[in-house]
Amino acid sequence: MIESAKHAASLHFLKHGPVRVEGTFRIVDIDGNELEVAEAGKVYLCTCGKSNTKPFCDCSHQEELKLRATN
Question: Cα–Cα 20 to 30 A to 29, which of 2, 44, 52, 54?
Fold first, then answer.
């Protein structure tokens, strides 16, 4: 594991879901603005593209999983 005094984060790729990021990190948008994080040290990033709060996950992927399960 690479350790850094400035940023040390772990990324966890969740099956059929978002990426959980934990540790010390910053999230910066395309314009260079740092985004605020609701819970310090942990965020869930959207991977499905359906979130209304991108880049953060709002669990929109769960609706699609429910639809797949009923078909």
Answer: 2
